[in-house]
Amino acid sequence: MTDEPRRRRTTRAARAPRSTAHHTQLRNPFAPAEVFSADQVEHLHQQALTLLEEFGLKVLLPEARARLAVAGAAVDEDTQMVRLDRGLVTAAVATAPAEFDLVARNPAHSVRIGGDHVMVLPVGGPPYVSDLRRGRRPGTMADFETFAKLAQRTDVLHAVSPAVEPQDIDLRLRNLRVGDAGLTLSDKPMYANSRGRASVEDSFEMCRLALGIDEATFLARPHVWTNINTNSPRQLDVPMCLGIIDFAAAGQVCIMTPFTLSGAMAPVSLAGALLLQHAEALAAITLSQVVRPGAPVVYGAFTSNVDMRSGAPAFGTPEAGKAAIASGQLARHLGLPWRSQAASTSNVEDAQGGYETMVSMMACVMGGANVVLHAAGWQEGGLTASLEKFVLDVEMLRIVAEMFQPVPMEVDDLAAASIGEVAPGGHFFGTAHTLERFESAFHEPTVFTRQNFGQWTDGGATTAAQRATAVWELWLETYEQPPMPDDCRAALDEFVARRVAEGGIAAD
Amino acid sequence: MTDEPRRRRTTRAARAPRSTAHHTQLRNPFAPAEVFSADQVEHLHQQALTLLEEFGLKVLLPEARARLAVAGAAVDEDTQMVRLDRGLVTAAVATAPAEFDLVARNPAHSVRIGGDHVMVLPVGGPPYVSDLRRGRRPGTMADFETFAKLAQRTDVLHAVSPAVEPQDIDLRLRNLRVGDAGLTLSDKPMYANSRGRASVEDSFEMCRLALGIDEATFLARPHVWTNINTNSPRQLDVPMCLGIIDFAAAGQVCIMTPFTLSGAMAPVSLAGALLLQHAEALAAITLSQVVRPGAPVVYGAFTSNVDMRSGAPAFGTPEAGKAAIASGQLARHLGLPWRSQAASTSNVEDAQGGYETMVSMMACVMGGANVVLHAAGWQEGGLTASLEKFVLDVEMLRIVAEMFQPVPMEVDDLAAASIGEVAPGGHFFGTAHTLERFESAFHEPTVFTRQNFGQWTDGGATTAAQRATAVWELWLETYEQPPMPDDCRAALDEFVARRVAEGGIAAD
């Protein structure tokens, strides 16, 4: 055995850059993998319905309890416990759409959510940011802007995310600053935190002003997305309930994501964690559909597990992989889009980070995830947004995006004549078939090297992470701000200035 | 959105090590993914048959041409070209078994090849070896022994491979030394290079002596495996032909692997590279079945692509991933086991190595590979066997092995009562359900850290690769040589000593 490459060189031709336009609208061509039988999926679903009927969940917002009570739920105001019967849940979930469009400021960047469509999003939520030049530090507004620009200029990322928490901005002004930056630095779909009613209303207004649309147009289609984490186990807190209600009322997109960490906030058995996840997702979706039947929701799933030694959360685990594939089955059982994520436990941009992120991505690909959150830049179990990890993840995402493309098999692709033309033991470097296609035949990496050992050593024997610094710097240098009509920009600026002058939003 | 882990600690309990006995016999529970329709698979297959009929291939060994001529092939002795008609190929391939056992010296380590079984193998073939203590250097016999020991003690690796070429051993003695080391340091199935008739016969004899079996027992079942790379395009050289003939005649396992690098030794279009791969595999399999109908073979597939800029081979590419999944379809179309590989282009144990290896492994998992070669230690496009990469890859392989295990869903697993027992917003750390299961609930990593940032920084802020050095050192320290009966050992020693005294084998 050798399996040993024969290393040859061709003259480097002037190359046309390969189009990656197909990365902006991704579809997963593979049939979804399954870890459960159809009977098991139905059994788990029925068990979740029973759990909501018998044990229920705690709902901290009076308005949410009142809305659910009106819909037929059994509410105990003393304990704030809400029990939902299976008829109510089943009818409510049935009104949620299987697919919908999320409209962007630039229509070319609108994305379809559901079916075989795949929406890929950068990391969301970390308090820290890191890069190899400046190290790990608390996130700032400048860092948020950096990630917004990078998301804008990256074809395989389909919206801006709350990539890092800008801790230098007062909480009362943070939503305004973040919304303003996201809308002006990017023309991809808008993200808004659900941190209370006034905050959400500000976000919706900023979106309308930036897009130059009136309220009716805004309400008619999804323009903004948010992510709702339940307080597992079995609790919906006040901002979450408000977010679900306000996004549903406005017909905007809620990703309902129980963060069911097996062994901590969820049972130590994977089936138990999935049962809790499913019950919580059903309850949150039910609230949204009670508020507005047909409101766009995504079945979110973030079941992973703790480390057996320390109790610390772990990501990129086999348990998380199986839970993800199972979650896809549960979402399809409900006829809803499914959100998963690519994540890792590693504290640094090393091989562990690559393997773990790719293991989670494998589960997303195999299971057919419709929304992949945290897919670029997630590090340190989600506590840090890393710029080098962002570049490395984007490289991986482009590989996955290329794997989604078909293998053409026309006569020219099969190249039988070309095969006959090359002598046995010869090579195809100089054939007409090769020369016609060579420049655009293959995916070309950005930060993964294909230098041989000698070239690579001469170039400093760098790791991929070390090379990634120059890449995000280049991406920032060559970033171009997308245009916004002057009147929209003026209206947005005026609104933000006014709300800042008013002191922004009381932190809630 | 936060998706933010709540970090808690549990008392570290005395933990029972988690059994990984199921890693020694792996089955892939997922339905195979497809990149081609059934019609496309049949079309490509027919095109390959036409290619063998019309263009044929060059066969450098007169005996191979003679055997194929007797079976009905059209042979031109002047050009050494052999054309195979579709009837001959179809009838020959039909005699190859769909599944078979590869018998190990220790019956517990025998492996099934085919169906949903997955045999995982370490890297094979590199001339160089590398570790972070000693750097990159030409491989030696000591390095070969190191990898044989590591393969023996690693549950998710199922046989010894030619992990590194021992360049300090004279070529005439190399086969004897390598066979002796593999058989005495491991009781997993034996690998033998196919480097000429005398070499192969020595290997078979060493196997018989080590196992204490007579020739009839040896011939009755597969005990030894080899890998045959065709000289793409369309050529079988002398040692390859001899290997195919001798392994087939002895009923031993040939993995037939065209190394069809798209854009170099194969057409630049992926369909064309797959067409060439398929034609060459069919020809090699036909030769084996002409020699002995029913001889065990594996449909090998190593279609990757060159780099567009340099013409250098690239691994872990999206093209290789799609080609792998397609190859699984082609192998199943023939009713044969399929060999693929996990590979990377990276020169170092970095994130690129992790992502690329995992992308290839994803294709193996999705496509349902029966044999995954190069799965531990492959670096630098296969030119280096890295000890740290070996450790990192084994970590990944164990994650994949755990993903193959079912998610139990009995009443206890669903834990509905436990969910009802924990207060909303509470946690499951102290429940009876958790305490009963916690110690063995989850996969536990070896080299991937789950320390938080502070602990990890205090511990030296190491990368996974840096931590891997201590792991392979520990694995070597705690390696235990498997027992061999004294009479077998004496017979093997006597044979090797005699053949060495005779000067070994003329290099061919």
Verbal overview:
The structure is a homodimer of 508-residue chains. By secondary structure, chain A is an alpha/beta fold. In chain A, 44% of the residues lie in helices and 13% in strands. Chain A is built from 18 helices and 21 strands. Chain A has helices at 38-54, 62-71, 86-94, 141-153, 171-185, 197-211, 215-220, 238-249, 270-291, 318-334, 351-367, 387-403, 411-414, 416-421, 432-437, 453-458, 464-477, 486-501; strands at residues 26-27, 57-59, 74-76, 81-83, 100-102, 111-113, 117-120, 128-131, 135-138, 190-191, 224-228, 235-236, 253-256, 261-262, 297-300, 304-306, 313-314, 338-341, 371-373, 378-379, 384-386. The first copy, chain A, has an eight-stranded mixed sheet. The first copy, chain A, has a four-stranded mixed sheet with strand order 3-4-2-12. In chain A, a hairpin with a 3-residue loop joins strand 8 (128-131) and strand 9 (135-138). In chain A, helix 6 (197-211) packs antiparallel against helix 18 (486-501). The longest helix of chain A is centred in the middle third of the chain and has 22 residues, at 270-291. Chain A is globular. The model of chain A is unreliable at 4-16 (pLDDT under 50).
Question: What are the key terms here?
Answer:
homodimer, 508 residues, alpha/beta, eight-stranded mixed sheet, four-stranded mixed sheet, 21 strands
